[in-house]
Structures are given as structure tokens and as C-alpha cells.
């Protein structure tokens, strides 16, 4: 299935949205509840999975929807198709403060591995799949668990993360240690492992959790400065306990700075 070639413009600074321009019969796929507005003439259709060629047929659609559940996403995505006679626009908004990045998969070898909630929207034809962490320790303590999201195809996809994002190309053998919650995306060529911080005092009182993510090139990586769990924990800590913010954010236990690690919430803290 050929990817739709879409034009776009990103607006805003801290709370961004992307406006996509569709030619007649062109389509874009958006994550559930991400649409901001659309012009008259655009048809909206909710489907199982992502509508890519890999998910043709009933079985393929069910399998694709099941994969999305494993990554913590909705069973459904929404396809926006321009049924009018001229160019039409549809916009998708970021779910929390941060940055949007357009990712041209054709320049990335056709595949990108992302944290589970990074995907916002894409040209129709981009496949949303899952990527399992092959190493047991990485799965348990790597911040994103065993399952991450994989974007495949040769089209344009948009990802979102908190704060400011940094894109960096790692040379073969080059290593970078990153907070486990700050990793947003990487090419499949990057080796991803975890490493104990090394000192008991640092692990218990340093506030950074027990493990680093160790990324080894070659390949491109994207890092975020403000993981959502870290932002939510700060809000929870500052909010009056009777305000109900804790239940709204789902942080009844108070949260921790380790984004996803099993032991991080026990040993890490903000202060």
C-alpha cells in the first residue's frame, strides 16, 4: 500500500499542534482523541488498528487492534480522508506540554521504535506495531517495560514527548547513559540495555532511580527533557491533598521519579 504524501505545519511553542493538508482522497491516521479541528469535506472513520496494508482482512485488523492494546493504546484509530474537491486541513493537538517531531520513516530505514504513548498521527499507510524488549532486565527495569511501539513504512509520522526533545546520532560503538523515562525513540540499530547506577547511596537517595538506560550506536535516538510521569509527580506533590488531583492523575501512591521501573517508585524521590 502506497503511503499518502501529506503537507503539514506545526504551530505553537509549548502546547503544539500539527495541521495537515490533504489533497482529494488523501488520508491521515490519528490517535484516539487527538483531533483538534477539521475542515468541511473531510470524512472521519473510526477503524480497528491503523488501516495499513499489514492489517487487511478481519484477522489482520483484529491482530493489529490487539497489538495496540498491548502498547496501552486504544483498540481504535481514526482515519481522516479528504472527500472534497480541493485541499482540506485537519489538525491534531498534543496531549500535554512538550514538542512535536515529524519523522520521515523513509530516511530512517523504514522503522522507528518509540515509547508507548509517543505516536500522535501519521500519513495513512504507516503501520503501528509493537517491539518487544529481548533482554529480561531491560523489560523489567528499562522504564518502558517489555513492549514499545514500532512505526513502520516510508511515510510521515508525528511523535510527541514532554518538555524539549533532543535528536542525536550515535556513532558505531558510541554509548550514552540516559534516565530510563527520558528515552522517546530510537532506530532499531541502536542497542538498548540497562545499567545499575553503581552506588547504594546514589540508588537510595539520588532521586534518579536504580538504573540508567544504556544506548549504544549506531543509530539515531530522541530524548525528552520532561517525561509525563515526572511532571505528574510534581503536580501531585504540590497539590493540596484534598483537591482530588491525586485521583485525577492516577497517582494515589504519590508517584516517583522512575518512569516505569518496578523498583524506582520504592527507592527514588524528588527531594
Share of helix among residues?
10-25%
What does the main sheet amount to?
6 strands, antiparallel
What is the oligomeric state here? single chain
Mean pLDDT: 77
Q: Element order, helices and strands?
A: EEEEEHEEEEEEHEEEEEEHEEHHH
Beta-strand percentage range: 35-45%
Structural category is: alpha+beta
Tell the overall outline: globular
Strands of the widest sheet, in order across it, are: 5-6-3-10-13-8
Radius of gyration: 19 Å
Number of strands: 19
**How far apart lie the N and C ends?**
52 Å
What topology does this entry show?
Elements: E1 7-11, E2 17-22, E3 27-30, E4 35-38, E5 42-48, H1 57-70, E6 76-82, E7 88-93, E8 98-104, E9 111-114, E10 119-123, E11 127-132, H2 136-141, E12 147-152, E13 156-162, E14 165-170, E15 175-179, E16 183-186, E17 191-196, H3 200-205, E18 211-216, E19 219-224, H4 228-238, H5 245-249, H6 264-267
Antiparallel strand pairs: 1-2, 2-7, 3-6, 3-10, 4-7, 5-6, 8-13, 9-12, 9-16, 10-13, 11-12, 14-19, 15-18, 16-19, 17-18
What can you tell me about this protein's structure?
The chain has 271 residues and is α+β, with helices and mostly antiparallel strands. Helix content is 17%, strand content 39%. The chain contains six helices and 19 strands. It has a six-stranded antiparallel beta sheet. It has a six-stranded antiparallel beta sheet with strand order 11-12-9-16-19-14, with helices on one face. It is globular and about 60 Å long. Mean pLDDT is 77; it is low at 136-143 and 252-271.
